[in-house]
Amino acid sequence: MADSGGQLIRGGLDSELCALRHLQVNYFAAAVDAAGCSYETIALPTGATIAEVRQELIARHGEKMATILGVAAYLVDDELTRDLSTVVSESVDIMPPFAGG
Questions:
Q1: Most CB contacts within 10 A, which of 36, 58, 84, 92?
Q2: 17: part of which helix (H) or strand (E)?
Q3: SS3 for 91?
Q4: Which tens digits make up the pLDDT trace of 47-99?
Q5: Beta strand pairing status for 73-76 and 91-95?
Q6: CA neighbor of 6 nearest in space, from 25, 14, 17
Q7: CB-based contacts of 39: which residues, under 8 Å, 6+ apart?
Q8: Nearest Cα to 94, choosing from 85, 76, 67?
Q9: Beta strands 91-95 and 79-81: pairing type?
Q10: Alpha carbons 89 and 70: distance in angstroms, whole number
């Protein structure tokens, strides 16, 4: 059975079930240009971290996104962080540095 917002898939050599959650990624400033959109939905395992979100986004959008993610902060559950071990929930905002003060 899947949790809300997720689905179950069978994978791995031992055929264990892995729960996937749908995560909304919201882009701002230069991240919008790199992604070609202001938001998208991705599927990642329950308990995924910002590091795993970064890997998925780089795989989707390439080197330009990698450069932006290298300097970005991430808004997860109303907490701004750069800690790649932070577990994501339903959404994450990608916040590149903004010009101005």
A1: 92
A2: strand 16-27
A3: strand
A4: 999 999 999 999 999 999 999 999 999 999 999 999 999 999 999 999 999 86
A5: antiparallel
A6: 17
A7: 24, 25, 26, 27
A8: 76
A9: unpaired
A10: 21
Whether the CB-CB separation of 92 and 55 falls below 8 Å is answered with no
Q: Is the pTM here over 0.85, yes or no?
A: no
What domains can be seen in the chain, in order of their start residue? Answer: 22-95 (3.10.20.30)
Q: Give the closest residue to 97 by CA, choosing from 25, 30, 27.
A: 30
Alpha carbon distance 41, 64 (integer Å): 19
Q: What is the dihedral of CA 70, 25, 32, 80, to 10 degrees?
A: -50
